[in-house]
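Case study 2.
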Amino acid sequence: MTTQYETTAAPIPMQWVGPMLIHFEGESFSQSVPLATFESPLWPSVGRGAKVSERSGGIFVTLVSECMTRSILLEAPTAAIAVQVSQALNTTFSELKEIVSTTSRYAKLQDLNIHIVGPLLYIRLSIHSGDAAGHNMATKAADSVIDWILKKHDNLKYVSISGNFCTDKKVSSVNSLMGRGKYMIAEIQIPTALCTRYLKTTPEAIVDLNIKKNLIGSIAAGSLHSANAHVANMLLAFYLATGQDGANVVEGSQAITLCQMHGDILTFSVTLPNIIVGTVGNGKELPFVKENIEKLGCSIHGANRLAAIAAATVLCGELSLLGAQTNRGELVRTHMSLERSTPQAS
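Prediction:
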């Protein structure tokens, strides 16, 4: 029996924040960003970081790598046979690459990583997906790869189209080490005078806080490949405003914030191995999403530019919050003034 569900809309408050100055792949541009969130202090916080970027020469964003992943799971009769199959697959990369390319004109197999547990074969496919985030594209390609492998090795058994070695929407080491989505690094250099004027603190105080809070605090908490203040806040707000899969904030927030002093200059960076965004595909046909992507200049320049803007947005929010937390009481005052609830009738 088929069940029909009514589709409605869930309105989320959204504001455009900025502009921020961004340098990416030889281009410099001033860009405001849409953020959809119920946490209203996020808008002025990112806005303050954006103002610093405009005054201090801008945010430099670097694309390290890009891919979408899917890990198929097959089972061999024994571990020895699993090893034999693994060795055979590593010699047939060109054939697997051809299979992937036939599933979509955009899909291109970039890498193949195999992990063996007992007789289980976890085969992680890394696929370039063009301007799409690539979830469905990678899954479709993985399905064809499964068919090909099972025909070549009829002693294997299918277990799952996804074996969690991808890893999709879960915290993992594999994504931080190998990347899933756009691997981005955003950097900025801030003179002491600008730090004092706009962030109301000193570079030394931010460096000290980052070490004790983000780095040591994250170790004490048992965080996995993650040392940041609130990357998830900016990423989710940006994802929702641009039609992305919000659940990808799980792996996306595995990020590292690094602060260093070089003379009287604060060098501030955020490394994000797993920004998963697309400018085409599911959700992008919604009118507000289409309009936002066009305003961001990404309907022409594509998903890499969108990821660069996301990384710069994260940096602005990280910088502003760390600045605020060096000053006792500032965070509480800001949240109370912006999020104070409406008094209840007596």
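The CA atoms of residues 149 and 256 lie 38 Å apart.
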